Amino acid sequence: MPATNIEIDIPTPADGEHLLRLARGISLFEASDIETIQELWTEFASKGDESSWYHFIVSRLDGVILGFACYGQRPLTEGAYDLYWIGVGQNQQSRGIGKMLIGEVEKRVCSQGGRLLIAETAGKEAFEPTRRFYLSAGYLLEARIRDFYKLGDDLVIFTKRFS
Ligand SMILES: CC(C)(COP(=O)(O)OP(=O)(O)OC[C@H]1O[C@@H](n2cnc3c(N)ncnc32)[C@H](O)[C@@H]1OP(=O)(O)O)[C@@H](O)C(=O)NCCC(=O)NCCS
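Above: the input record for the complex with coenzyme A. Below: its predicted structure, written as tokens.
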């Protein structure tokens, strides 16, 4: 797939159904993850990118959404941002789309004055590829809270600093 044909933009409310269908098809996401993504999407779609606390971007090929990311400023901080979600369609993974999306989030965070981007993920084995993804994108494994999600399932916190 030639990466040059992939475009990244801010989705419109009309993209919601497709975006959520794509998220539901990602095997690592559980029902509760989808519910949360849906909540953030609803806030974003109703308030719009300017006013919403949560910001979504999507990557598309010929108009079809291949992946999405959701980020926003961490409340009560100056310049710290959270990467709330990033997901690439189950059949489109490991083709560089996630890297393009996270790069675009970083660009947007920097242009909004962000200095720190935080990506939280799970420590369980199924998320090993996800952790490798963050490391390969230049993130630092900054912290781990043992047994955070449940016994035996840690919270792993990756960070990237821009200043
Ligand atoms: C994590 C995710 C967003 C990465 O997007 P992607 O398009 O699959 O990843 P890319 O193809 O851009 O890979 C970028 C790097 O990550 C590494 N990577 C990605 N998927 C990998 C996998 N399954 N196994 C090993 N390494 C992997 C690659 O080595 C690549 O490094 P390189 O550029 O140095 O070769 C995507 O795989 C995904 O949606 N996973 C399921 C949901 C998830 O875990 N979301 C994050 C938590 S919210």
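Notes for the reader.
Strands lie at 6-9, 55-61, 64-73, 80-88, 116-122, 140-150, 153-161.
The two ends are 34 Å apart (CA to CA).
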